[in-house]
Sequence to fold (470 residues):
Amino acid sequence: MKKYFDILHACPLFRDIAPQEVAKTLECLNARISSFDKGEAVLSEGAPASHVGIVMTGRLQIEQTDFFGNRSMIANLIPGELFGESFACAGIKEVPVTVRAAEHAEVMLIDCLKLVRSCSDACPFHQQMILNLLQIVAAKNLIFQQKIEVTSKRTTREKLMTYLMLQARQQGRLEFEIPYDRQELADYLEVERSGLSAEIGKLRRQGMIEAEHRRFKLCNFVNHRERSSGCFGGL
Amino acid sequence: MKKYFDILHACPLFRDIAPQEVAKTLECLNARISSFDKGEAVLSEGAPASHVGIVMTGRLQIEQTDFFGNRSMIANLIPGELFGESFACAGIKEVPVTVRAAEHAEVMLIDCLKLVRSCSDACPFHQQMILNLLQIVAAKNLIFQQKIEVTSKRTTREKLMTYLMLQARQQGRLEFEIPYDRQELADYLEVERSGLSAEIGKLRRQGMIEAEHRRFKLCNFVNHRERSSGCFGGL
DNA sequence: CACTCCTTGTTGAAATTTCAACATACAAAA
DNA sequence: TTTTGTATGTTGAAATTTCAACAAGGAGTG
Fold:
């Protein structure tokens, strides 16, 4: 039981809610924990999008099936992670994905309507959770926006450079580590791993970057600024 | 003055707030309207991300400048549209973009902190606006997710088919109209217009779709289901 | 050490996309 | 009517990506 509270406490949905108040909050929200066997659907495509879920133990996968019947994996969820919040908050009727237990898993489900409508005694945790939810969804938004900015570039080289520059900006240094290995980076950039390796090699040979494993360093990367300054109206 | 209220009333941020209460809400939020000349920056890159903006008149553009100094246009905002909400709600310090008036424009700016912290007399509009904001941000999330699903496909053909199938699903029919002309569709799919036209022609000749202007019809598209059923564990 | 597994880099051919250019159709304007 | 402009389709060459296959270098294991 303790371990549940540890996970909740680390979960951004419960940020700034005092540990001793979590239990009360859960009661107020009528949160319940359900168990799922490996392969079992936690949420099936077409089911009402009414709940926010939190992985407590085990591992879940979000899948989507296209018109051809091809199933593709969208995300992999580990304990502490949230799912379904965008669907529930956006007010759509049915979830367009299936969430499945990749191994035996326990999941906490919270009715989003309950969360969103203030309870009768207007408890303050409630309000805090709504703000947390807003923060979480907005942050995810920025992550998506950034991914789109990167992957909208047409060539592997441009995608890679855009990604590296964003990382440098975010980490505030020209030398930094990325959270992906080569295959994962290729997946993120939506390009072929071999082509990515080739492009990294090319940039390295041109002296624009240093790269080994997850550590990158940008060299002759930054001094090209202002190239297009004064180009107003052209956009 | 009346026209401002018309725009606000149509703005999703003020959904379910009675027209006669809007003025009071604005006062409570200390909302103010500012004017900007053409080319002037409404929000400059690096400025604190504290406000949500609503375009009242004119037109704004969201720009981003990369490390090379290349400026690229991210969005085009017309009256009634919101901007800055993801940055403000996600709690990041500085906006990573510049919002600029593309023509003379009036903008309403609302301090997100004021919006998010309940006011002293806990007015109910307040709460409704937070929920509206949550709904808006979550809906944008789904739009991004969908765009990523489409553009993550590797070929023009796959991108196009994925997009058309999603449209068909959303509109609930196999014959439907899309909101883009060819150039705009190519931009959305992140492909070349000429290549897109070629691919549409190919699909048409193969009898899989009918297409003229913005009207599409999917024909031998749907019966390929279940091809990969039973492929568990392979994902 | 030998062996396996895994990550990364490399390579060349095939497939695909981009790019530039032009053809056609249609609508609006003169 | 002619003219102009815009949207769309088409084409071929150049550039790029994908694909399949293999090589090299660790890390871990027996």
Summary: The helical segments of chain A are 2-10, 19-29, 85-90, 112-116, 124-151, 156-171, 182-189, 193-205. The first strand of chain A starts at residue 32 and ends at 36. Chain A is about 40% helix and 20% strand.
